[in-house]
């Protein structure tokens, strides 16, 4: 694993959920770096990655961001398999999962919070910023001295039951660890953390007083905690010291990474939510912290994990347990402006492929103009060189476009074919009598159209370099760098155009060809996971508004399109 893919842990010292991950890293001797966070919001370092999730810890590995300590540990187990901490059998895994949910969701943590020594000088409960933050997190409930004292007795009696379970079930037979005597495992990490917090953490001194919980009453449990922390202490001494990064350094490192953790593509069958891949969704905890929602395109949905790609291009992973997922319903967009009554529109055939950004531009414009019912879509694959699966229709397309490129539009009035996406767009403009005032803004937008096409050209060349030239041993890294530089320069121009108002908000009526071209170009980069959003906040805002547009939603690059949407039948040539 390269340096750009080394795990980066976002945490702060008092976060006991972060301790779980740190213990795992030290016991496994896994190198990592860290980005220390404040114990309360805001957390601008995570905002740089487009992450709204407000809990800690969070871990970044390459272009992937993992939320929730359980998912982080499971991911590390997957990336670094075969360690001594791993469970060996399904029954051991079942024990581990039950303990994991028992300590986090089964009331142990919630009751431990009730026993925080609120009277301790310098503690977090003496910090008004922390109290304000937690009140916001928990729906307005403030952890006042009176409230803490009121709940303390109930908390202690529940914790005594938890100590009794550990003492007289798991540890009753004298075993040293939860799963036996072979050494600590992830099951110990999942079970021990609230007990360690209550027994050894200096911030919790005297938290158990008056509750009948002591080393004399529960000797095996206390010994287990001390034994585990001794093992952690020894492992930490042997581990490399984590490099401490600030948010900007994290962002720069992650932008250098091209690695994404493989995820099970697609959506689990028969899922109750009825979501589809590439849906716009929001994900947030379902217990507390619900107001901080992460939005993105759905990449994968299993029974245990949800993965979205956010506006910054990162894959953000969440567990499904105690997290809620909802589809974002785009605002209703007005139907295309109706054509002038009596306007004669010829039947048209569009040679296309849904993965081609240029054909997407043309068909999006047709949707904007309400022309889709007059178009027959004819899917083809073309390529500059013979390449099985990519060039199968070169000769067919060449009969209408001698360059054998798409899109190519064949119409009743121009039967020998119209080609080049900009020329086709001009034809569609003329077809419905689009009149644009040729002022400064007009030529500025036309230049942006050319800029967007250039961005798409560079992106297509990157694909060819990786997919065709690389397998022939003639890939040029300097060529790829040159294409990426073109893209970044073009994006800077687009950011400037949004700032200056040359690219504005989506209109209530038709969008023009120049706006459509820019939208398609950014959508292509988003689909290819080419970094485009960093340091371009205005362009990100523009894209997030425009990508909800009907024409964009109906032309995904990874699914088939339909001509004649909303009509009784597709038009035929």
Description:
With 573 residues, this protein is α/β, with parallel strands linked by helices. It folds into 3 domains: 3-238, Glutathione S-transferase Yfyf (Class Pi), Chain A, domain 2, CATH 1.20.1050.130; 262-327, Glutaredoxin (3-Layer(aba) Sandwich); 348-553, Glutathione S-transferase Yfyf (Class Pi), Chain A, domain 2 (Up-down Bundle), CATH 1.20.1050. It has helices spanning 16-28, 44-47, 69-79, 90-105, 108-114, 128-137, 145-170, 186-199, 219-238, 247-256, 357-368, 394-398, 421-431, 440-469, 477-499, 513-528, 537-546, 550-553, and strands at 8-11, 33-36, 58-61, 64-67, 266-267, 280-285, 294-301, 305-309, 315-319, 323-327, 348-352, 375-379, 408-411, 418-419. The strands form 2 sheets. Strands 1, 2, 3, 4, 5, 6, 7, 8, 9 and 10 form a 10-stranded mixed beta sheet that branches. A 4-stranded mixed beta sheet has the order 12-11-13-14, covered by helices on one side. The protein is elongated. The relative contact order is 0.09. This is GST N-terminal domain-containing protein. Residues 346-436 form the GST N-terminal domain.
| Overall form | elongated
Residues in helices, as a percent range: 40-55%
Q: Provide the number of structural domains.
A: 3
By oligomeric state, this entry counts as single chain
- The low-pLDDT segments are 565-572
Q: Compute the average pLDDT.
A: 89
Which CATH C-level class of the largest domain is it? Mainly Alpha
- Give a count of the beta strands, DSSP E runs of length 2 or more: 14
User: From the 3D coordinates, which CATH architecture of the largest domain would you assign?
Assistant: Up-down Bundle
Domain GST N-terminal: 346-436
Organism: Aaosphaeria arxii CBS 175.79
GO molecular function, one term: maleylacetoacetate isomerase activity
InterPro entries: DUF7962 (IPR058268), Glutathione-S-Trfase_C_sf (IPR036282), Glutathione_S-Trfase_N (IPR004045), Thioredoxin-like_sf (IPR036249)
């Amino acid at each position: 694993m390269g340096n750009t893919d080394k795990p980066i842990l976002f945490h702060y010292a008092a976060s006991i959920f972060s301790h779980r991950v740190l213990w795992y890293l030290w016991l496994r001797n896994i190198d990592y770096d860290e980005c220390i966070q404040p114990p309360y919001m805001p957390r601008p370092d995570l905002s740089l990655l487009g992450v709204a999730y407000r809990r800690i810890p969070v871990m970044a590995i390459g272009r992937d961001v993992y939320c929730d300590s359980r998912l982080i540990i499971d991911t590390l187990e997957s990336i670094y398999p075969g360690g001594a901490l791993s469970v060996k059998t399904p029954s051991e895994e079942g024990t581990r999962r039950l303990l994991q949910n028992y300590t986090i969701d089964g009331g142990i943590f919630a009751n431990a919070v009730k026993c925080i020594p609120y009277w301790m000088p310098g503690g977090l409960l003496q910090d008004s910023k922390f109290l304000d933050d937690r009140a916001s997190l928990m729906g307005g409930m403030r952890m006042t001295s009176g409230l803490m004292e009121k709940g303390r007795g109930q908390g202690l009696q529940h914790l005594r039951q938890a100590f009794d379970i550990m003492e007289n079930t798991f540890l009753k037979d004298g075993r040293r660890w939860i799963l036996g005597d072979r050494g600590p495992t992830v099951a110990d990490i999942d079970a021990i953390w609230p007990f360690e917090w209550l027994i050894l953490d200096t911030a919790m001194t005297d938290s158990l007083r008056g509750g009948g919980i002591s080393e004399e009453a529960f000797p095996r449990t206390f010994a287990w905690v001390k034994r585990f922390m001794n093992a952690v202490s020894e492992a930490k001494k042997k581990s490399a010291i984590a490099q401490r990064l600030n948010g900007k350094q994290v962002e720069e490192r992650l932008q250098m990474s091209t690695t994404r953790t493989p995820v099970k593509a697609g959506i689990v069958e028969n899922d109750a939510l009825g979501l589809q891949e590439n849906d716009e969704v929001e994900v947030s905890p379902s217990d507390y912290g619900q107001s901080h929602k992460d939005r993105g395109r759905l990449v994968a949905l299993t029974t245990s994990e949800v993965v979205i790609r956010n506006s910054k291009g990162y894959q953000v992973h969440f567990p499904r347990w105690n997290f809620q997922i909802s589809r974002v319903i785009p605002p209703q967009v007005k139907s295309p402006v109706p054509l002038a009554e009596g306007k004669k529109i010829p039947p048209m055939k569009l040679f296309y492929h849904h993965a081609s950004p240029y054909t997407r531009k043309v068909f999006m414009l047709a949707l904007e103009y309400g022309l889709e019912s007059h178009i027959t879509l004819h899917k083809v694959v073309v390529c500059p060189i013979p390449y099985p699966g990519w060039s199968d229709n070169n000769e067919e397309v060449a009969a209408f476009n001698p360059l054998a490129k798409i899109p190519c539009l064949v119409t009743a009035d121009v039967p020998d074919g119209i080609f080049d996406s900009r020329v086709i767009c001009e034809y569609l403009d003329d077809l419905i009598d689009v009149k644009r005032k040729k002022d400064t803004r007009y030529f500025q937008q036309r230049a942006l159209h050319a800029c967007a096409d250039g961005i798409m050209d560079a992106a297509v060349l990157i694909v060819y370099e990786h997919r065709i030239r690389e397998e022939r041993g003639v890939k040029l890294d300097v060529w790829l760098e040159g294409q990426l530089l073109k893209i970044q320069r073009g994006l800077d121009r687009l950011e400037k155009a949004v700032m200056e108002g040359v690219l504005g908000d989506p209109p209530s009526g038709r969008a023009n060809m120049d706006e459509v071209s820019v939208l398609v170009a950014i959508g292509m980069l988003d689909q290819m996971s080419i970094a485009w959003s960093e340091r371009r906040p205005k362009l990100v805002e523009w894209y997030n508004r425009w990508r909800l547009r009907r024409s964009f939603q109906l032309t995904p690059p990874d699914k088939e399109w339909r001509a004649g949407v909303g009509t009784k039948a597709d038009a035929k040539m």
